[in-house]
Amino acid sequence: MPDTEGHPARAEMDLLTVLSALADPLRYQVVTALLREPAGAERHCSSFGLPISKSTRAHHFRILREAGLIRQVDRGNSRKARLRREDIESRFPGLLDLIAQNAPADDSSAPSRANH
Amino acid sequence: MPDTEGHPARAEMDLLTVLSALADPLRYQVVTALLREPAGAERHCSSFGLPISKSTRAHHFRILREAGLIRQVDRGNSRKARLRREDIESRFPGLLDLIAQNAPADDSSAPSRANH
DNA sequence: AGGGAGGTACGATGCAAGTCGAACCTTGTT
DNA sequence: AACAAGGTTCGACTTGCATCGTACCTCCCT
């Protein structure tokens, strides 16, 4: 079962849930942005430049979290998101490559450097 | 651009559209059912045992068709659906393997033999 | 020619998902 | 202690999607 913060274990990940999570353009954009970062990189939820309100952003990150795509960790003041690369690759081999190869040419979700 | 029947060319396939198409349980079930068939197999749209009406079924097959996942060909009396394996594998390598490995244990969508 | 089988198109309906603002919590800063 | 920053939760609204019935089309068979 998911932990107290709603992260499913690797074995609990469901492809249909993952696909539904990825089927939203905003969430897909977040995943591809994380995929462009070096493995293990952490980003603020607010650093993706999503054109939505705070509450809607929390909603989308919740979907991603509960699908098992990202892990959100408390970092004192704020909370950071990290792509669960190993879990995803282990449970759904090839999925991340697939996403990476079809990432939008997008650059609105700036790299972590813009995080000053 | 898509042909007169709404089939997109291989290069036009969009991953986001494909993921949205697959994110529905019924449509996912159709794809996995086709995946269990030998390559190139054709099935009646009505042979999948979907618990929905005729018009809803047409709707779902339209989504699958316009996403590029299936090709629908007129066969005189009726119309048959075929999985576009080569196009999918070429455009989104690994996607079909991913789906096949996560197919539901389902058996309601009987094999083509049930087509008597 | 008529009827049945298989599919599509259209309009209407109901429910799920995305969206927002407001209130609240926690952490760190002043 | 007060406040700002970053997130979450809640309820309300709106849009989109799945669903259906009806009507219509095209083939095939009788």
UniProtKB/TrEMBL annotation, chains A, B:
It comes from the Bacteria. CDD domains: HTH_ARSR. This is Winged helix-turn-helix domain-containing protein. Residues 7-103 form the HTH arsR-type domain.
